[in-house]
Amino acid sequence: RSDVVSAVWTELLCRLQDSCPASSPEYVRRTLETQLGEIFSLQSESDTNVENTSGKVFKLEDVFDSFDLNPIASASIGQVHTATLKHAALMRILHLQQQNCHEDVPDSAM
Fold it and tell me: Rounded CA gap, 77 and 70, in Å?
C-alpha cells in the first residue's frame, strides 16, 4: 500500500513472499552449528564461570534433544523450525534467516 509506506519500501516489500522454497537441511545444520560455536565462544569470553569453548565445533545434538531440519514454514526472509532444548521439556521454535535474503531486503529492514 503506497499510501502507507514510501515507494522504495513498497517495492522492497513487494519482493517478499510468504511461501518460498526452504533452505536445504545441510545448509540449516551447517549454519546453526557455526552460529552455536560463535555464541558459546563469546559467552565463555565474557563469563569466567563458563568453560572456554573457543574453536570447539558444536553439533545440534550437543544443544538439542530434537531438531527438525525440515521447516514448518518458509518465506522470503526466513524459515521456522521446531526443536527441543536439552534439559527442557518444552518444544521451541527457531527462526533461521533465509540464505541470500540480503539480496532482496536490506539489513535496515531486518
Answer: 16
10 alpha-carbon distance from chain centroid: 25
Q: How far apart are CA 39 and CA 37, in angstroms?
A: 6
Spatial separation of the C-alpha atoms in residues 43 and 29, rounded to whole Å: 21
Q: Which residue has the cell 513498497?
A: 10
> Nine-digit cell at 7?
515507494
This prediction has a pTM of: 0.64
DSSP bridge pairs for 93? 82
What is the total residue count of the chain?
110
In sequence order, the 6+-apart residues with CB closer than 8 A to the CB of 36 are 58, 60, 62, 63
Could you give the C-alpha distances from 82 to 32, 60, 69, in angstroms and in order?
13, 13, 8
pLDDT digits (tens, 9 = 90+) for 19-30: 678 889 999 999
- The answer to whether 27 and 97 are in contact (CB under 8 A) is no
